[in-house]
Amino acid sequence: MIDPRTPILVGAGQITDTVGKPSSERSRVAFCTEAANAALEDTKAAIGGHALGHRVDAIAVMEFFSDISPRFASPYGRSSNPPKSVANRLHADPKQLLYTHSGGNMPQYLVNKFAEQIAKGETELALICGAELLRSTQNARRAGMKIDWNEDPGGGEPTRIGDPRFGFSEEEARHELRAAIHFYPLLENAIRGGLKRDVDRHMKAMGRLFERLAAVAKANPLATRREGYSAEALSTISPDNRWICFPYPRLMNANAIIDQAAAVLVTSVEKAREWGIPQDRWVFLHGCADGTDTWVVSEREKLDSSPAIRGCARIALDMAGKKVSDVDAFDLYSCFPSAVEVAMTEIGIPENDPRPISVTGGLPFFGGPGNNYVTHSIAEMMNVVRAKPGSFGMVTANGNYLTKHSAGLYSTEPTKGAWKREDPKKFQAELDALPKRRVETKPTGTGTIETYCVTYGKDAPERGYILGRLDGSGDRFVAMTPDDPALVADMLTREQLGRKVSVSELGGRNVFRPV
């Protein structure tokens, strides 16, 4: 007997469009609704997908990139209430209309949250969806098209959910460190230092790792890059694989310029039976967890680890009564190699483990639709475990700069007893109690480079950045290169990890020079 309040995922819909022309009709919220309708049809409900759409009583939409970053801002307008726009198209009247704050962790976080609400009888049918149209936006700009995505669906402002804080500190921002393309390369070189690898050896290892993702994407018709890149091609600098921010060339970065949408539906066993959703569509959430690492990267005690990932995986597995060896497939958040490497280490997945570490192909090759990638990975994991009944798949989700984490363990095998998760506040209290590294905002004297990265323009390196440790106090500091092209070039040809530097203030920023 399955407890009737047990939460289950019952529908998944995904769309990737690589050829469609931009239009006013396909706005971001309209694209979300396309994926939602695909998920409704995927349930194979006896009452029909259209009628099931009317039953949706909670809708959560992932925040669109155009609402987050000036780089991705759209000139074509927006909906004033994205979840309400989706609800209107579905002819639904939900009690909850949620629009997330930024974070790639949010799709799994919402599955966890809605599962808990459903188990308590607070929600009956939840829709999680999102979409990005950055390919269409770029094409429309280039063509000088006049399209209109403005929409006021009524209902006022949606309820915001998630953590609204910026992912960087004032000290980091003072030194131009604000974006993922700065922080993940910094983490990568810290990982390399921990492994005691030189640059060439580590580049080849990253190539081998992402070759595995590229192979999955090659076989996935929904992937945007299906070339099946070799490890050599991924780790070799070429006109098609130029440096973006050392040590990452282009093909080791998430591919955001895509048109993709995805949606998943969460309900209870009781309601699934009432609506005639066949049991072969049911996917059970056996374990889940959420946790946030030390928020500011430069304050983390260790730059090559994630206590939150380790704990999320442990809690999810313990909740399910399973071990890592029981998991048949993973989809590890894969915006950059460092995210995958840390996750594998923390979860306990050996480098040569034959099990899939992605079921989509990952953000560089499947596509990186902003905050909505994990909705795709959950949808695809549903397909994977349905195709192999009784198997288990784990999805990990990551927001900001290896900061916000969520995990879910999925299977068609029913859970046992009443569904209940550990209060995530308990684990978060443990994470918050971990030591932090003091950051000196006015460092002077000498220190040692702990990690570094070098940003590139279109054709040449532009600036180097370091996190270092001061001699004597051991405090961490943030610094950048002065206006010195020779020093920037030297950072690309000489090992910087462990290098002695002097640091001082110049023009309101900390700058460093080798000693």
UniProtKB/TrEMBL annotation:
It comes from Reyranella humidisoli. This is Acetyl-CoA acetyltransferase. The keyword Phosphoprotein does not apply. Residues 428-504 form the Thiolase-like protein type 1 additional C-terminal domain. Keywords: Acyltransferase, Transferase. Belongs to the thiolase-like superfamily. Thiolase family. It comes from the Bacteria.
